[in-house]
Amino acid sequence: MDTRTLYNQWSATYDKVENKTRDLEGEAGQKILSSISFENVLELGCGTGKNTEWLSQKAKHLLAVDLSEEMMAKAKEKVSTPNVRFQQADITQPWSFTKEKFDLVTCSLILEHIEDLNFIFEQASSVLQSGGHFYICELHPYKQYSGSKARFETNEGLQVLECFMHHASDYFNAAMKNVLTCECLDEWFDKNDRSKPPRLISFLFRKK
Ligand SMILES: C[S@@+](CC[C@H](N)C(=O)[O-])C[C@H]1O[C@@H](n2cnc3c(N)ncnc32)[C@H](O)[C@@H]1O
């Protein structure tokens, strides 16, 4: 089954079941983004709105996009303030869903489903104002090397989504090609236990 169909299915339980990756990313995002100021935000892959709520309280305007209408329906139940607009879109296609410029683009736990990182960096760079930030937090490459993939249980059994491997250097090289410099690279560990491999990797890039 394709990514959209599977996320439509997962939407029923995404917020309810234990998910260390989801929860750790929520903490990481708030820590990193609390240190910068922003007004006009594009949230890629908003899902059920885990981060949309927090971002909507900090931003003047927020455009939240997602491929899955069912995931986004959950987000709409959480966030209904007039400064937030939701748009169903596939970010692997040219970003015709906006003509605006943003001072922050966020991307949490979505790039493992996208093969061509360069396309995403190219589009993100084109919608960012000069000086704007691009925040990314994804499953750490170490986790990917050991076989971790987005997955969820259904009555019919375990569903595993299509995932693509991204090495740390892939993010850096895509950023460099698209006039983005890295201001911050972090690794995030379960219970902050640095004796074990990290769960997540995050980047804060900035457009020159
Ligand atoms: C693991 S969820 C993460 C949701 C949210 N960002 C979070 O941190 O909880 C991944 C989300 O990316 C969306 N997604 C996957 N591929 C996409 C694409 N090509 N375009 C837009 N959204 C996509 C899925 O529909 C899903 O809602």
TrEMBL record:
One of its GO terms (biological process) is methylation. Residues 42-136 form the Methyltransferase type domain. Pfam families: Methyltransf_11. Signal peptide: none annotated. Keywords: Methyltransferase, Transferase. It comes from the Bacteria. The keyword Methyltransferase applies. InterPro entries: Methyltransf_11, SAM-dependent_MTases_sf. GO terms for molecular function: S-adenosylmethionine-dependent methyltransferase activity. PANTHER family: TRANS-ACONITATE 2-METHYLTRANSFERASE (PTHR43861:SF1), TRANS-ACONITATE 2-METHYLTRANSFERASE-RELATED (PTHR43861). This is Class I SAM-dependent methyltransferase.
